[in-house]
Design goal:
CATH class of the largest domain: Mainly Alpha
Number of strands: 13
Largest sheet: 8 strands, antiparallel
Shape: elongated
CATH topology of the largest domain: Butyryl-CoA Dehydrogenase, subunit A, domain 3
Number of helices: 9
Structural class: alpha+beta
Number of domains: 2
Strand content: 15-25%
Length: 450
């Protein structure tokens, strides 16, 4: 039989809904862990009542005048994970610790149940440990701004905790059913059952813990799948857009994921037709302009230069920083400036640069952002020395624009999209000047009226 192949559909969840699901999963995880603690610390798992058919009182005499009525004696017991409490006609209610390594043969059905359910305690301890670990993982997820790997650990921990709790439930119920057998059913219509049992609230809390743990696992898996699909889509969307920058004669990287995976399922009507066309076809690429005459440098060339004087002024700095004989280079997504005297190490994100201009006088390079100013005097490209100042400027502009593409696709806000309040300086001094000015104007108006 050939199974049909189903297309994968993206799990699309908004940022706010993701955090809602994470917080819901946190609540379920707390409830599951609390229920598991109640289950492990209480002793009301199973209530049993066994009929003692062949029990004879110690005095050997009947307690009833009518010998046709035979008295019925019961052995009542309460079973838990750590204690076994019971009573019979000659013994008062008392509790004993369960010996997990005892080899004694049980004398009745109640004792047989106590021996058989010991194997379920291994799964109980494993479920308790995994519940606590899953709670710690999802608490760590809530502290992260963009959780991804921690979500995977949280989902796996809750899944295995649910499996351990479910295994404990199945093993415990199977052991009880195996030892009880058909004694819960009457032999004839005139007789009564020889054994009665009922599960207590501790065992019910174990079931509640299983349900809450699996609900937390479902929430974690749902958010993790959404973030994984988003990352996969963004990664290969960036990859397809960056292909347009490569020249046709360049050796292309293997693109087997695009050819053999779920890439065609990612096309949605909400996106523009141009992006869908770029994802569907590799031949109809529109070439994006890049500066320079030699296209083979498109992936190799970075700006490495030296500057005689560097002037850097940030909005939050009281005094600007000035250094001499500094090295300037573009490393990954940052413009790095290093100098030995005075020791300076400045890293400026390329996406934060808003203005780049070159001035021939003094080989001046002017770079500005919303919160900083940067000036190079005596700028010289040492990696490609024949390049003019304009070519270095065009290359830096190109690198800035190229770095903005992933930010735009990932919807990361730029510096100019943030509301930055202006820093008010010398506000008290200005306020006093204004009050003096108002006083002088009022005095001048009063003199005119006189």
């Amino acid at each position: 039989m050939v199974l049909p192949a189903l297309e994968h559909h993206l799990t699309k969840i908004g940022h706010k809904n993701r955090w809602r699901f994470i917080h819901i999963g946190l609540c379920f995880s707390i409830l599951g862990c609390l229920a598991n603690f109640i289950t492990s610390s209480t002793n009301h798992w199973l209530y049993t009542s066994e009929v003692l058919q062949f029990y004879v009182p110690p005095n050997g005499t009947a307690t009833y005048d009518d010998h046709s009525i035979k008295p019925i004696y019961f052995k009542n017991a309460t079973l838990g994970p750590w204690f076994f409490c019971w009573l019979d006609p000659t013994t008062t209610f008392h509790c004993t610790n369960i010996d997990f390594f005892s080899t004694e043969e049980p004398a009745d059905v109640t004792s047989s149940i106590e021996v058989s359910v010991r194997k379920a305690m291994v799964f109980l301890l494993a479920g308790l440990f995994l519940d606590c670990y899953g709670l710690i993982c999802i608490l760590f997820v809530c502290t992260r701004e963009k959780p991804f790997t921690s979500l995977c650990f949280s989902a796996v921990a809750h899944i295995f905790a649910g499996i351990a709790n479910f295994s404990c439930i199945i093993v415990y119920m199977s052991a009880v059913s195996k030892e009880v057998g058909n004694k819960i059913f009457p032999a004839t219509e005139m007789d009564d059952p020889l054994f009665y049992y009922a599960y207590g609230y501790s065992f019910i809390m174990l079931k509640v813990s299983f349900l809450c743990t699996e609900a937390a696992a479902f929430m974690s898996v749902l958010v993790y799948m959404s973030k994984r699909d988003e990352r996969t889509y963004n990664r290969y969307r960036i990859h397809s857009i960056m292909k347009n920058i490569r020249p046709e004669n360049e050796t292309q990287l293997p693109d087997k994921y695009y050819d053999h995976s779920r890439m065609h399922c990612l096309q949605k009507a909400s996106r523009s037709a141009s992006i869908d066309a770029s994802l569907r076809s590799n031949t109809s690429r529109q070439q994006i302009y890049y500066p320079g005459a030699e296209p083979e440098y498109i992936h190799i060339k970075q700006i490495v230069a030296v500057s005689i004087v560097v002037y850097y002024k940030h909005r939050g700095d009281t005094l600007p920083r000035v250094c001499y004989n500094a090295s300037v280079e573009v490393m990954f997504a940052h413009l790095t400036i290093k100098s030995s005297w005075p020791p300076v190490n400045i890293r400026i994100p390329l996406v934060s640069i808003c203005y780049i201009e070159a001035i021939h006088k003094y080989d001046h390079f002017d770079i500005r952002g919303r919160s900083f100013q940067l000036h190079f005097l005596g700028f010289n490209d040492v990696m490609y020395s024949p390049n003019s100042l304009e070519e270095s400027r065009d290359w830096l502009r190109f690198l800035v624009v190229r770095q903005r593409i992933p930010h735009s696709i990932l919807k990361i806000p730029f510096d100019w999209e943030h509301d930055q309040p202006r820093i008010r300086r010398n506000s008290d001094f200005r306020r006093s000047l204004k009050s003096i000015k108002d006083f002088l104007l009022c005095h001048k108006n009063a003199l005119r009226q006189e």
